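Field reference: sequence -> structure
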Amino acid sequence: MFPVLPIFLLGLPFIEIYLFIVIGSRIGAGATILLCLITALLGGNLVRYQGFSILRNVQSIGARGETPALEMLEGVVILISGILLIIPGFFTDFLALLGLIPNIRKLFITSFIFRNFSKVTMYSIGTQGTSYQNKTRIIEGQAKKEKE
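Structure field:
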């Protein structure tokens, strides 16, 4: 992941400039700027709405005594999507909107994050017991606190 990040950050301005030139030549400069502003405003409202939705989910899962690991990771993806929407450009807006689609966001989290960080044990404790997201051997049992 980390060797790709510098290439992405260096290539991002070139992709954005290219898209601005192509789209601007087809619809005009004023319409291109207006389209950027509209996507930023609509995307900002969508980020706010989904952010509050994730916050409510985290609170309800926490109230049930479960660990909201997936929901917190979804919150991180929504935050990154919000940052991408602030950056002017069509490619970053496209990536941000992908991060705001719930099914794509969950697919990204489960495929990328859990696969690349599989050494970290991600688990949630709920009423159904403990469920682990990686291939760790599970030995279930109970613990009692002894009096001293």
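Note: The first strand starts at residue 123 and ends at 126.
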